[in-house]
Amino acid sequence: MKILITGGAGFVGSHLTDALLQRGHHVTIIDDLSTGRMENFAHVRALPNFHFVIETVMNETVMDRLVSECDMIYHLASAVGVELIVNKPVEVIERCILGSEMVLKIANRYKRKVLITSTSEIYGKSAKVPFSEEDDSVLGATTKSRWSYACSKAIDEFLALAYHKEFDLPAVLVRLFNTVGPRQTGQYGMVVPRFVQQAMRNEPLTVYGDGKQQRCFGYVGDVVGALVALMEQPKAVGQIFNIGNNQEVSIMELAERVIKIIGSKSKIKQIPYEEAYEAGFEDMTRRVPDLTKIKKLIGYKPTVGLDEIIHKIHRYFLTRESNGVVNGDESSMAEAFEAQV
Ligand code: UDP
To answer: In the structure, what pLDDT confidence band is assigned to residue 71 with cuts at 50, 70 and 90?
Structure first.
């Protein structure tokens, strides 16, 4: 099959690229490198069944050609990370809504099967955990920019479902819960790579708020396996699925586990939310996926636990360091990448 991945140079997209190439597919990625990195696909760049296009999905001419030439699309291109959402809300809203609008419009033009990636942010502040797909969204006021991401992704979902309902577009929708693993950068706020890098440098681990907020961290390999299985399952069309892990951990406990596993001398430093993000910032206290639906359809079960994930991320950063990349200094990566190819 010929597969197009938007956002293929991103953290999840690059792992999906690897999985699809391993299955013998032809993979083309389109990425504008806004948050994606050339480094993430350096290892497959020379393969004959891999192609990359550095361009935005908003370029209709390029997207028209790429979609017409492919059999199916995984749409992962998106703005990511709470820090980006708080600091660059216009960019985040436009990137989510306009990007998905373009992908869906052209997918419909050629009637290509498309997977739309959405987010657990959609559930917002809902106290009803675990979150299942038909639950209400409980979002904060529009004056709190954090919720703009959930609303933008909700528009993406509505639009994908509308294309399916009105024009029979084969669309599969997924809501990714906190997904972690090697190649994720802490640059946009993601807590696990950030804690691992802080611990490796023996710097304080920055726990926001009281650290009692809980998350469930899903391993990227498990998540990518689920994406592929859903796209191979005809019954997934027109439906939404949670994907993630349902084992909860508090952010304080996460910090303690990272320090222990890495054997770091770091201490923990609590930082008020208003200092970390902005005044009036609202966090989600619990975010647990109900995995019943995806388990029933494709037998999905997370296989990699948090301690193993921390080990894998630690090993990834150690390897990068030994390749001359200064962890945390994203500017040194371009040079290291050029040196590699
Ligand atoms: N967080 C933290 N320290 C950091 C970065 C994040 O305590 O340096 C917290 C953040 O406030 C949230 C949790 O860790 O409660 C997960 O944050 P992340 O940005 O990884 O994902 P989110 O679940 O917020 O989308």
So the answer is: very high
pLDDT for the residue 323: 85
Domain limits, the chain: 2-251+272-338
Helix/strand/coil (H/E/C) assignment for every residue in the chain: CEEEEECCCCHHHHHHHHHHHHCCCEEEEEECCCCCCHHHHCCCCCCCCEEEEECCCCCHHHHHHHHHHCCEEEECCCCCCHHHHHHCHHHHHHHHHHHHHHHHHHHHHHCCEEEEEEEHHHHECCCCCCECCCCCCECCCCCCCCHHHHHHHHHHHHHHHHHHHHHCCCEEEEEECCEECCCCCHHHCCHHHHHHHHHHCCCCEEEECCCCCEEECEEHHHHHHHHHHHHCCHHHCCCEEEECCCCEEEHHHHHHHHHHHHCCCCCEEEECHHHHCCCCCCCCCCCCECCHHHHHHHCCCCCCCHHHHHHHHHHHHHHHHHCCCCCCCCHHHHHHHHHHC
- Whether residue 336 is predicted with pLDDT greater than 80 in this model: the reply is no
2-251+272-338 belongs to which CATH class? alpha beta
Active-site residues, by number, are: 149
The protein residue whose alpha carbon is closest to atom 6 in ligand 1 is 191
Pocket test of ligand 1: the residue of 121, 153, 191 to mutate, having most ligand atoms within 8 Å of its CB, is 191
